[in-house]
Write a structure and sequence with these properties.
- The protein has 2 domains: about 150 residues, 3-Layer(aba) Sandwich (Rossmann fold), CATH 3.40.50; about 110 residues, UDP-galactose 4-epimerase, domain 1 (Alpha-Beta Complex).
- Helix content is about 40%, strand content about 15%.
- Helix 3 packs parallel to helix 4.
- It starts with a strand and ends with a helix.
């Protein structure tokens, strides 16, 4: 078995790589990314520089692959408003390039990441472009008979998540605790997230690419257990204070651009229940694991993140 992970140097990509190295030690893994991996590669894993905006680089990366996990993309809500054309180039054109390259390279199975949306597709450039990528995957499945498993991810959490430039709930809250900053919650904090640990997500992802490629439906992937942002921040602060003192408190701030107040997100886990699968790692454990990971980061990395968000 030979697989390629686009965006394999990113948060979920590197965790999927680590999962495959542990559970399928004979599988060859190609990490295709524009950034070097930040974790140790296994004996059967190699890094290839590839940009999803350049199909020639993808054809080289996909050569001989049985599976391609398309995880590459550009993230952000308010962060993408000023660069929406870049989001289109990466998340739409890039997705099309990946599908074309998989078709031309004879890749047997493709994993295509989508995201849930709120009232429509236009709340921000990320939602819009990822929905377009979802439709592209379904088009190639229907038109070319390709095995394309499209899955809508909810809120992945766990070690190796980047601290910036895209603001992610768990690492930013932990960073605030570490440096005595207030944990800032958008709106009144009633909006929900559905956190799934990246270890669970990796397990579900491998199942999906090998079982859902011919299915016309798109399935959600979360834990199926929503928590509102205010309660999530309280949990993070409480977990941090079990081992270390911090003057941090929780403070509500105005909603940021690209998000709507009071949105309740939770995965429809009916498919996963039907095949006897469920998320096993509770959010509390994900928080503890991420705190432990962030405490191993070099001081300059943490200091750079603090300057990025708070200026000092």
């Amino acid at each position: 078995m030979k697989v390629c992970i686009t965006g394999g140097s990113g948060f979920i990509g590197c965790n999927l790589m680590l999962y495959l190295q542990r559970t399928e030690p004979e599988t060859e893994i190609v990490i295709a990314d524009i950034a070097n991996p930040s974790v140790r590669l296994g004996k059967k894993t190699r890094f290839v520089y590839a940009d999803i905006r350049n199909m020639h680089s993808l054809l080289a990366a996909f050569e001989g692959c049985d599976e391609v996990y398309h995880l590459a993309g550009i993230l952000g809500t308010s962060e993408l408003i000023a660069v929406s054309s870049l989001a289109c180039e990466t998340n739409i054109v890039g997705a099309n390039n990946v599908m074309d390259a998989c078709r031309l390279a004879g890749v047997a199975r493709v994993y295509n990441v989508a995201k849930p949306h709120f009232d429509g597709y236009d709340e921000n450039a990320y939602t819009l472009t990822k929905h377009a990528g979802e439709l592209i995957g379904r088009l190639y499945q229907q038109k070319y008979g390709m095995q394309v498993a499209t899955v809508r991810w909810l809120n992945a959490v766990g070690p190796h998540q980047h601290l910036y430039p895209v603001r992610k709930f768990l690492p930013v809250m932990i960073l605030a605790c570490m440096f005595g900053r207030d944990l800032e919650i958008y709106g009144d904090g009633s909006q929900t997230i559905d956190p799934i640990d990246v270890e669970d997500l990796s397990r579900f992802t491998v199942h999906a690419i090998r079982n859902l490629g011919a299915e016309p439906k798109v399935v959600d992937l979360g834990s199926g257990r929503a928590i509102n942002c205010l309660d999530g921040a309280k949990l993070i602060l409480a977990e941090f204070k079990k081992h270390e003192l911090t003057p941090s408190t929780i403070r509500c701030v105005p909603m940021r651009e690209g998000e709507k107040p009071g949105v309740n997100l939770v995965a429809d886990m009916s498919y996963w229940t039907s095949v006897g699968m469920k998320a096993e790692i509770p959010f509390e454990q994900s928080v503890r694991n991420t705190i432990g990971y962030m405490k191993t980061l070099p001081s300059y990395a943490l200091a750079n993140a603090v300057r990025f968000y708070w200026g000092s």
